Amino acid sequence: MGTVRISAAASSNHGLTLRQKGNEVEGAHRGDFQTRDLSGTIDGDAVRFRSAFGGGDSVNYTFNGKVTGDEMAGTLDMGEYLAGRWSARRKARRG
User: Fold this and answer.
1) Which of 30, 60, 72, 92 has the lowest CB atom count within 10 Å?
2) How much is the pTM?
C-alpha cells in the first residue's frame, strides 16, 4: 500500500506495507519516528489490522475499514489517545 492519512485533532502521514495471505494481512506500519509490525484480517471488503508504537507507553493503532479498488478508508482507534479517520491508496509497483 502507500501513504496513510490519519486525521484526528491533527493529521499525520504514515506508511503501510501490506501482504495478504488468504484472509490474513501482515506487514509494517511506518510512523513519524519508527516502524512496527502489523497484523490483521480481511473479510470481503472489510479490513482490520493493528500495530503498536512505543516502549513502556506504547500507542496501539487499530485500523478498521473498507477496501474499494486501490483504496482503503475507515476508523482508527488509538485507545486513550483518541480516535480518528484514516485513508490509504495503493502505491504503484515499480517495474
Assistant:
1) 92
2) 0.80
